[in-house]
Amino acid sequence: MDLLDDRKRQVVTAGETRAVVCDRPSVAGSVTQRACSFCGSRVVLYPIADALHLVHGPVGCAAYTWDIRGAQSSGPQLHRLSFNTDIREEEVIFGGEKKLARALRELVAIHKPKGAFVYATCLTGVIGDDVEAVCRMATAELGIPVIPVQSEGFKGTKKDGYSAACRALDQLIGTGPTEGIGPHSVNILGDFNIAGEIWVIKGYLERMGVEVVATMTGDGRVDTIRRAHGAKLNIVQCAGSMTSVAKLMKEKYGVPYVQVSFFGLEDCADALYQIAKHFGDPEMLRRTKEIVKAETEAVLPELARIRKDLEGKKAALYVGGAFKAFSLVKALRQIGMQVAMAGTQTGGPADYEHLKELCDADTILADDSNPLEMASWLALRDVDLFIGGVKERPVAFKLGIGFCDHNHERKIGLAGFEGCAAFAREVHATVTSPVWSLVPRRAGKGSA
Amino acid sequence: MSLPIAVPSSKRPAATNSCRVCAPLGSVLAFRGLRGCMPLIHGSQGCATYIRRYLISHFREPMDVASTSFDESATIFGGQSNLAAAIKNLVRQYSPEVIGVCTTCLAETIGEDTVGILREITTADPDLPPIIHVATPSFKGCQYRGFHDTVEAILRATARGGERLPHVNLLPGPVSPADLRHLREIVAAFDLPLLMLPDYSETLDGPSLASYAPIPEGGTPLAEVADAGRATGTLQLGATLADGPGAYLEREHGVPLVKASLPIGVRATDAVLESLAAFAMESAAGTSASAPITPAWLSAERGRLVDAYVDGHKYVSGKRVAVVGDPDLAVGVAGFCAEIGLVPVLVASGALTHRMATALDLLGLAPGSFEVMEDADYDSIGRRVAELKPDLILGPSKAYPTSRALGIPLVRIGFPVHDRIGAGRILHLGYRGTQRLFDEVANALLDHQQDSSEMGYAYQ
Known about the structure:
The complex is a heterodimer. By secondary structure, chain A is of the alpha/beta class. Chain A has three domains: 5-22 and 307-438, Nitrogenase molybdenum iron protein domain (Rossmann fold, 3-Layer(aba) Sandwich); 37-172, Rossmann fold (3-Layer(aba) Sandwich); 185-290, Rossmann fold, CATH 3.40.50. Chain A is 44% helix and 15% strand. Chain A has helices at 37-45, 59-63, 89-94, 97-111, 122-126, 131-142, 158-172, 197-208, 222-226, 239-253, 265-279, 282-310, 322-334, 349-358, 371-380, 393-398, 416-431, and strands at residues 11-13, 51-56, 83-84, 115-120, 146-149, 185-191, 211-217, 233-236, 257-259, 314-319, 338-344, 364-367, 385-388, 402-405. In chain A, the strands form three sheets. Chain A has a six-stranded mixed β-sheet. The longest helix of chain A has 29 residues, at 282-310. Chain B is an alpha/beta fold. Chain B has three domains: 5-13 and 299-452, Rossmann fold (3-Layer(aba) Sandwich), CATH 3.40.50.1980; 23-141, Nitrogenase molybdenum iron protein domain (Rossmann fold), CATH 3.40.50; 168-297, Nitrogenase molybdenum iron protein domain (Rossmann fold, 3-Layer(aba) Sandwich). Chain B has a five-stranded parallel β-sheet, sandwiched between helices. In chain B, strands 3-2-4-5 form a four-stranded parallel β-sheet, with helices on both faces. In chain B, helix 8 links the parallel strand 6 and strand 7. Chain B is globular and about 75 Å long. Chain B starts with 14 loop residues before the first strand and ends in a 9-residue tail after the last helix. Classes of the chains: A alpha/beta, B alpha/beta. At the A-B interface, helix 1, helix 2, strand 3, helix 3 and helix 4 of A face strand 1, helix 2, strand 3, helix 3 and helix 4 of B.
């Protein structure tokens, strides 16, 4: 692959000593898979189910993020509606603050949310709307927290959007009562309850005897987030998006945090043990061992069967955050697959160093990749599977390569022990499909 | 549930569940129908990423669209260097035959002189491929407008006048790849040379490949578009277009323009075939060719369709439907419904044309028998559907929450269809497309009736 000059330093093979250059803006014209800063804050906050999420901007920003993640809620479904001030030419000329204030009044009266998030966009940023002032006024007038999320699309990368979301959460945390919160209590940070995954994790924690105070933000509620500072430990999963909330809570409220992942058998077991060890309760540790043993034994026979079919097959992956990449490399190894290429949108220098340790020497590592690069590596390494999101899917499918969605739009829960089995089943279903024997890449070479 | 209904989104302070998307999406779609064209969106990179994701969910095809990736300094000082860098990088990676630049709200609001910047860039590097620019701020219009404005921009930049040529220009509007393929087949049946703009029938519904195509094969070559100003005539589909790109060709190059509703239903398809026959006569004038007759396979399809109408008429007769979609598709489908005895009680679109009601009157729908909602969001559409209680909804996937909440079956048409495969292969046009639509509508009603019956009969 003839890389663009500006991109060469962002691609290495794992065995090289050279570090992956990362944490930089995308090269113009390179067809990055990254979205914008606005997207970062919108996807992180959107699963809070009893809040009003109002996009202050033109129609596209709201329409493209309408129910974007399929984040599930056990109660209110307000987050699944798309609210938008639908800025038109008139507001571009005269300003959109009045429309925003009217929108908040109207929507709060209809939907009676517990709180509201107002997302600024490029357009309302450049016309100079004072979103913060409108939110302050609305908070006083409407009697609920109305929180500005200042992540105009042009302000930095998706990661900066994550930070804006964390600042917004910080405004809520610490404003609710903490009475009745026990000593073995946690918040779950960085799980968005895609396909009900947070319920799986909560199930394990409950069996361990751990109380979950707030979930951020999957199946999230405004009032539980307000009392999150009462929990005794933060469990951070999607490290990229939520570590800064954990750090803030440590500074402000002295709540320690652990970084974990619930994807893959190893990581999932490790996560539960870390939590149990933190509380130092021997009884809890005993229960945790039981859970890990029982859950692992329940899925191992199926994983072994699947492994027989997948042994030696090759995979490539391109995901948003590095933590997901770590887990996937391990989860793929569990079912006998090698990782030929691994890339992320938002990984940092330390993440890539860790990824180097995890991967084989010839694994291609790429930061902020694009379809042409990925397509060339999929073909070069002749992979059997590509793992990514909706934007990566056609790159794989067009070339006749199996694909597994590990992002927003999947409908299968992949977290926890049962999630490992679901993941393995999905990988198996795509990799062993008979259709590959018909695609040009494989035709005439025997079946895949 | 206290909101007034049928108030356009623009008159309300907030839209809930938008029924439209933004103008650059329509622009990208149109650019994808030009051979070797690489679309470039001038603004924040989220715009390109979201549009790609949305189009991929519908077409399930690669959708490489570049962005000039504005940051804060570009927003303050202008995006000139970003635009230059983006063009340089995409030329190196994609070797496009043409670059289609459309703008975002951001670029338009900071007063970026995109035309001037592009002139400088092309002057400095004469080896660059042609660059076509179109302004697509979404605060002025949605994907529907972005699409037609882009078609017009391509024609303005490319079409040249001169001696008449025998071909006909076909401006199909934002229809499906399957529709485009079928239109081409129909025009070919009249022995008419065709220039169709855009034509993404191959680029957005392509074959499985051994190696990745940076720009998918297919599309109308720019060199052919140059001849648009010399065509025998232009056939522009879309009942709600005021002037449309075809009017530009007529004004500027004297190419006679015939406007027609989308060929959905027997009568609307008859009308389009009559226009094509007339063009074929005109095109063949002075040659020894005989007057064109409707090709046999089209007559056969028409005959089968009418026969199917008869077989199924009782299942649809008097049933009430709500139709949601792009204005021209919604109007076309409503016309088809009226033709088979379905009663369109609500015809809704997220776009604002001010012309849907008139277009429906012209199709022969009894004035006062239906309601039209333009500039609507799904919240107001859903409220009205809940009150009108139709038996069926025809519309995109985004109507599914309404369909599910009210227990009214949904037949998926138009864009976007995100929750099924084969969206690009949904055929709406011609006798064949109408046949498919009719079978699906009748079967959706039968299905619903069968599912809600107690005895679960297997005969109908």
